[in-house]
Amino acid sequence: MSATFELVANNLGEAGSPAFPEYPQFTLIEAPGRLHLATRTSAGLPIMEEMTPTRVWQGLITPFEMDEDARLALRMLAADRAISVHGGSLHPGPEAHLMQPHPAESRLIGTDVVFDVLVTEFEAPAHPWAFSLSPAIFQRPQKFHPHLRSDRSLRLRSRELHAFCVYSSAEFAFDSHRPLLPQFLNQVAIFLAKHVIWLKTQRLFGPNGIMVHDGVDMSTVMSTVPSDAIWRIVPLTPTRWIGFWPGSSAVNGVDHLSLNPEGECWCGKGKLYKDCCLPWERAQYSG
């Protein structure tokens, strides 16, 4: 499915201007840091590009107003059902009450997290990027996030943030008759809802898939783990927090080769797959 679109102008161009009616909390700001895209040449050689956005927006998104919303949304997201988004908050429909409870629902407590979100727009047909300034979301070995774009970074003075892997550009299409930004922010809100669920359902696993902490009370990680746990005996033994990410995920890695060469590339640059990432991916994965 192609994600080609035409931007619908909103005639707002000065810093401090509000966004569209659906997201009045988002305003235009100056870029707070440097944006970088780690990409490859057609020969597969890694390169780093500094990106210049056309516009930068900042605003707050609260995916869940109440824990009950999070539990009902989990049912729908896990089943890949469409869900309504209003101003950045998810509103599960009546059908969610009729669905079977999800086993992870009991973990969804304190889900009313407020995210300070930064969105960068680029010249069409490139897709926007989104970051969370607070709480900061980025990749790190101790708490690896499964759905971030490590190739897209926002470098601030004291830290580096990574963009959300909001959707696959090869599999998601914007409605070209509607403004792009509200549609994109709806996708960002759904991403952040899944992120909250992932955080609340994390458990700590060691080697061989052995769970060493259930993650229910994060403050007790050091005090309740058995004294003979492998990560106490061998502190350098790798451990990983693994949570539940609801809903299906886009194809990744070698599976990209199954995408339509004539369709839009998964990476979000807005080019055809055959003219973008296909040459180097075909060379990398055929070996």
Descriptive report:
- There is one protein chain.
- This protein has 287 residues and is an alpha+beta fold.
- It folds into two domains: 27-202 and 243-286, no CATH class; 205-241, no CATH class.
- The protein is built from six helices and 13 strands.
- It has helices spanning 67-78, 95-98, 180-200, 221-224, 230-233, 278-286; strands spanning 27-29, 34-40, 46-51, 55-61, 84-86, 89-91, 115-121, 129-134, 148-155, 160-164, 203-205, 211-213, 240-242.
- The chain has a four-stranded antiparallel sheet. Strands 3-2-9-10 form a four-stranded antiparallel sheet, with no helix packed on it. It has a three-stranded antiparallel sheet with strand order 12-11-13, with no helix packed on it.
- β7 (115-121) and β8 form a beta hairpin.
Main features:
4-stranded antiparallel β-sheet, alpha+beta, 2 domains, 287 residues, 13 strands
Total E-strand runs:
13
The whole-number mean of residue pLDDT values reads 85
Task: List low-pLDDT spans.
Answer: 1-13
Which percent range fits the helix content?
Answer: 10-25%
Order of helices and strands: EEEEHEEHEEEEHEEHHEH
Give the CA-CA distance, first to last residue.
28 Å
- Secondary structure class reads alpha+beta
Main sheet: which strands, in order across? Answer: 1-4-7-8
Tally of structural domains: 2
**General form:** globular
For the largest beta-sheet, the strand count, sense and barrel status come to: 4 strands, antiparallel
Instruction: Compute the number of helices.
Output: 6
Q: How much β-strand is present in the residues? A: 15-25%
What's the gyration radius in Å?
20 Å
